[in-house]
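Q: Hi! Curious about what GNAT family N-acetyltransferase looks like structurally. Here's the sequence.
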Amino acid sequence: MVPPVTVRPARLDDAAGMARVLVRSWQETYRGLMPDHVLDDPGFVEARERFWTTALVDERYRANRIAVAERDGAVIGVAMAGPPETPEPGWGLHLYVLYVLAAHHGSGAGAALLDMVIAPHESAALWVADPNPRAQAFYRKHGFVPDGTVQVEDGVREIRMVRIPQDR
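A: Let's find out. The predicted structure is below.
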């Protein structure tokens, strides 16, 4: 029997596991879209751990919602949402991070993480790599639609998807 996935707010002692999940997820997701030297940088995990430590303790991130998914006590997914850096009409939250290790895709961890950081009735936006059909299908399933905005960040083409619940 496969142990259940638990989703909960992130704690400071999760920072190292969160960093490992993010880096491994980037390697699984962006290999071939981003340069290998970025994905394989020996300091990548340490830099992400510093980021997560800051995000969990610094006042600048106080309004953000940060969660982890665990299975058997190990972090397998991470999510973070908060106020948009540049407010836009129509949506109030930005999904900055949502990654689940590939071995746990389909476990429900991604949906639970999304719901933990952005309630289904809340409007939100996110950027998703293009092409990334699996992630785009996941977000469409959860009410997000492309709004036609495109950017290139770190050499990766991204499309913006927004969710504006109809019962608002």
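A: A fun detail: The first strand starts at residue 5 and ends at 9.
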